[in-house]
Amino acid sequence: xxxxxxxxxxxxxxxxxxxxxxxxxxxxxxxxxxxxxxxxxxxxxxxxxxxxxxxxxxxxxxxxxxxxxxxxxxxxxxxxxxxxxxxxxxxxxxxxxxxxxxxxxxxxxxxxxxxxxxxxxxxxxxxxxxxxxxxxxxxxxxxxxxxxxxxxxxxxxxxxxxxxxxxxxxxxxxxxxxxxxxxxxxxxxxxxxxxxxxxxxxxxxxxxxxxxxxxxxxxxxxxxxxxxxxxxxxxxxxxxxxxxxxxxxxxxxxxxxxxxxxxxxxxxxxxxxxxxxxxxxxxxxxxxxxxxxxxxxxxxxxxxxxxxxxxxxxxxxxxxxxxxxxxxxxxxxxxxxxxxxxxxxxxxxxxxxxxxxxxxxxxxxxxxxxxxxxxxxxxxxxxxxxxxxxxxx
Length: 393
What we know:
Blueprint: H1 5-8, H2 17-33, H3 35-44, H4 49-58, H5 76-89, H6 91-111, H7 114-126, E1 131-134, E2 150-154, E3 157-168, E4 175-181, E5 191-197, E6 203-204, E7 219-230, H8 242-276, E8 278-279, E9 282-283, H9 288-316, H10 322-347, H11 358-368, H12 375-387
Helix pairs in contact: 2-5, 5-6, 5-8, 5-9, 6-7, 6-8, 8-9, 8-10, 8-11, 9-10, 10-11, 10-12
């Protein structure tokens, strides 16, 4: 008799049956419609976002944890479990959903006007309209307060100038949520968000190519050259960095679960492989070193899943704090990339091919480890929570 890693931890018993059914449904659809194409998408360095987004919308995955405007209104834990399955397929697919729902849609839903919500959210929920989120700049990632993108008044309009970098979905997006410094407050207090249709004159979104990670994802810049917007384009409720940082926390929460999915997929592939692969006339699974590696990886995977579920409960209760999200993001991505690398050792030379998912996941997790806050940023957030002293400077 054999057990899966999650069975050893009794994970199914900790998940609401409806959420578990949703998770299995998502896994099944991805197995049919996404996984057969991942090798080709990854090798080509592209993904058919326009074709894929409506399929994901039909499943209710786009903005699924938001209420109203065509969104499913699920629990945070259900959203996390969906992210787990999406990233078990590929981090790029989970990124598509996260950027659409937890960044662009959440920003409009949380900080936007009713007009902005009605204009964009229903079409984004179905995948008809694609969104992106413009915060990171070429020289300002971990320190968004230093952003150089500027928004200045010109009568009743706003004029935006600047460049955003590493923006998922940007080359194919219909709308961008762009954050810019204004003269309406000192320092980061002057940061405001704008809902920017990408067909507005002055916007270009060149694609970033030659990536070694997140290849089944479309990444680009957002270049703003005297982009004129009406006053109604501003997100009225967002002032200062609290606006974009709240969106990042939504996306980080999805990563907490998503990283577990990538690690689980690697471990499942490794367990199957070592059972079939014969070394010195017996299965690789029958060696003590192999079993020690599998045991250690299972332990870390199970702990990561338990942490994710606990954070999901806290979020559903409305009590989840940013530093707790940092705990989850730091631990789960760090452990996931360790599991992916260890699984590669069990697969030997076969582990470097796209026939198996482990090195693809490992490469993707290099990006996941960096975006939505690097490991070092999350260490400092946890350190500040413990000591009461910020150490970012």
